[in-house]
Amino acid sequence: MFIHADLDFRARRVAEFEHISEAKARDMAVKADKKRASFYNFQTEKKWGAVDSYNLAVDTSHLGIDGAVKLIEQYIRIKHGQ
Questions:
Q1: What confidence tens digit (pLDDT) does each residue in 22-81 have?
Q2: N or C end of the chain: smaller count of CB under 10 Å?
Q3: Is pLDDT at 82 greater than 80 in this prediction?
Q4: Domains plus CATH for the chain?
């Protein structure tokens, strides 16, 4: 599963949560993405964010957090035949 959002959405959420500027939050997000991608690519020998590496991709910038949670819950119920 790959949960993602566009940079503007993520920067706004981080800025609000951390009480920092959106510019600083954007910088933090970009740096965190680079670290995550590097770690993931090394550990899995796959490419971070490549669609064929995941069985579900969820964009929280379109669904919101609550909508993403509902989608993931539904996915799990369907996957496990409930």
A1: 999 999 999 999 999 999 999 998 988 888 888 899 999 999 999 999 999 999 999 998
A2: C
A3: no
A4: 2-79 (3.40.50.300)
Whats the size of the chain, residue-wise? 82
H-helix segments, 1-82 = 7-18, 22-44, 60-79
CA angle at 23 for the pair 2 and 7, rounded to the nearest 5° = 20
DSSP 23-43: HHHHHHHHHHHHHHHHHHHHH
Closest by Cα among 42, 59, 41 to 50: 41
Token pair of 73, please? 């819950």
d(CA 13, CA 22): 9
DSSP at 52:
G
Is the pTM higher than 0.70? The answer reads yes
